[in-house]
Each structure stands twice: as C-alpha cells, then as structure tokens.
Amino acid sequence: MFNRIITSTNEDPTYLDFWKIQILSHKIFFPNKILTIAFLTNRSEDDDLIVEMRSYGIDVRLYKPTPNIPEGNHAKLLRHLCASEFEDDVCVITDMDTIPLQSDYLNNLTSERELNKILCVGSEVYKDTPHSGKFPAHHITAEGKLFKKLFNPKNLSNEDLINEISKINNVYDHQESLLSSEFSDESLIRALFERGDVDRQDLSRNINTKEQWIDRSWWDINKDRLYSFNYIEANLLRPYKQNVSRIKDIETFLNSLVGGNMSFIKKDMFSIADECLRVHKGNIIEIGAGNGESTEQFLKISKKYNHNVIVIDPFEDGWDDMPKTYGKPYPYQIFKSRVSKYENLNLVKKSSTDKNIYNELINFLPISFSFVDGLQYKDSVISDLNLMKKLNCNIICVDDFTRNTNESQVPLAIDEFLDTNSDYIILHYEDIAVRAKVFLIKKELYEN
Asked: Do 288 and 193 share a domain, yes or no?
C-alpha cells in the first residue's frame, strides 16, 4: 500500500489552478493518505496562497527555482525529488492535472508492489516503440529511500542535484535532458535506471482507458458511470480556467460527496466540535487530557450549548503505562489549575480501558463529539474507538494520525477499526504536515 501521494507544480496556471480540485478529490478518496504538493516558487511560507492551501490540511513544500533550468522541467522532476525526502514513507507519484474518481484501483495496484522495489505501471503502452523501456510517471510507487537511491544516490543538496541531473543526456534520447524543450521525466527515469542499482517491478495498467478514464484526449462524461464510481480517474482538460464549464460535472460530483461544501474539510478540531454540538446536541468526551489546553477549549464550546465535557485520564496512576517517548507526564495539579473554574467538567480519573468505564460513561449520554488522545498502541486505540462507538458518538477525532512507531500505531488502529466497522467513515483530517488529527463520522449522519 502507500502513505503519501505527491504531485508538483510551478507558477504556471496551466497546472497550478488545479490545486483545489486536486485537494478535494484526494480528501474524498484517500482521506487517510498524506497529500504533498511540491511547489516550485519564489513565494514565502506566509504567502496568502500557501497559507490557504495548507488550511485544507495538506502538506505543501516550497522549492526555489534553479538558475538556467527551465521551470516547467524542474517542476515536473520535483515530485520525484520531493519523494526522496521521505525515507520510509511509501510514496505514489501523480500528475497535478489528474485526479482520482475512486480508490479501489490504486489501492489494489499498490498492494501488489514488492518490498524494496520501485513499482512502475503501464510500460506496455511503450512496447515495440522507440520509447521501449519507459513507463508513465503517474503512479510510480516506492519508499522515499528508493526514490533517493534512484535520483540522489550521492546525497547532494537540491541545487547541486538539479545541476548534476541536468548533465544527463542521450543515454537513450535527448528528452532525458533537463535543459531540453522536449524534456520527459519518463525518459530521464529510464536513463537513471540504466546507471543505477535499484530494483524495478513492472505492472500492467490492466484497464480499458477509453471506458475507465475521463481523458482530455476523448473528453466525454457518462454521469451514470461517474456516480457509480466506475471511472478510475480524470485527466483534466487544461488550462483549468478556460475549461471550468466542461469540468463542472466532475466538480459537482465531488462536491456532492462532501455535502456540497468544500469549506468543511478545512476546519480545525474545535470548529468541528462546535458545529457538531450545535447540530447534534450532546456532551464531549476527551480521552487523555494532558495539561488541559484542549480540555479548556472543549469546556468553552460545551458551555455555549449547556453541555458537559467528560475527561477520562488516570493522570499519575497511569504514568507507569506511558512510554518514555510520549514525553514528560502531565501532573493532575497542572490540569486542575487550568480547568477548575469550569462547572461543566466531569472527571473520570481512570484508564479508558478500565472494566467499569462504560457503566460510568452511560450516565453522560448522549455523546456528540469525542477526542481520543490516550495511549497510542494499536489495541489501546481500537479499544477507545470501540468504546466511543458503543456510546453512539457522532464524531470521533483521533490524534497523531501520521505516527506509526513502536509506541504509536494510530494509523494501523484506524484502518483495522474501519475494516471491521461500517458505521463510521473518515470525513476529514487536519494538520497533516505535523501531527494529524483524523475525524470519523457516523455514516448515517454524513449521508443525511
């Protein structure tokens, strides 16, 4: 499978203007994967566009153009170089102007990848042509360290690497050259495999592209197929702004899957909790309170709607169960000093896995929103999720969705929970570049 999807662009509106529909489609079909946009630009980190892009919970990486290197070529290459920065993440390369319309195809395709090999998809399209040995860059999949082994084996700085790659030419053809007006990253990659020592695994697309793609070469949209998820992806007409009316059917379809409101996917935890309590009356549960910072925010939200916050945390009694990598434990007195002025707090000073915990919590029904941030071993997280499900919680927020270590297996727990529970779906995740939060919503609420 894979952890991260990477695409790239520069300032050229031919590609840059697809950023919103790119985010929307990946949030819908791959909500538990990190979307990274590698952006070749002179913009600063606090630029309005960068701030807006990141507000949707994606990872935006900024790279400066290199003098004398055509920016379009550099941008095309950049997604591969960006992937090489993520050592153990399994990265899938995609095109900025191509969006998914379902998830099964890519999930099934990448599940066939062999460990420590770069998955190359679609080389059959070049069979018996002068381009034999090449394959489409779209859907190349591998661990970041394999991208690095192929593209940057000398561990050069970004500028030095670009200059080094720009020297490659005519191993097979002139399109390998980063300086060429006909540059092809597919040609370059063929040359890099020739000189490198990286194992490759080829898989056929094994699809009928005329029936299963919406493609700019034969633009036609069958709405029945679209709404039945029978299309795999769309290679969009470009530029975007000149083709908005022709792309509209796809955008309408995508918006229908997020309730017609893309703005919802950019909200943070507290605004989602607020909206949840406003629409679905009930209390908030917080598992793992720390020093009470998030608790205080929940208390303020709950007070607006005359509801309570129930905190489940053993504090000092649970310190022996906490791995040292979680950091310094939070003493109860610090928590108490922050929240003691609030009258709508109920503290259950126990572990969330205590055998009597459910019987205590049913006294606080209904539960509208919960924040799960306790022990992060897979079994612990699954136990907390099942507890919230048993309490019929409307939205469950889980912290640290991107952490997968010996002491934290949150993504594994989420996957297993969703595999065995059809009542919840992933709706949204935030702060994906740092320590992500994922939101699970009851399917019946989402569909209504």
From this structure: no
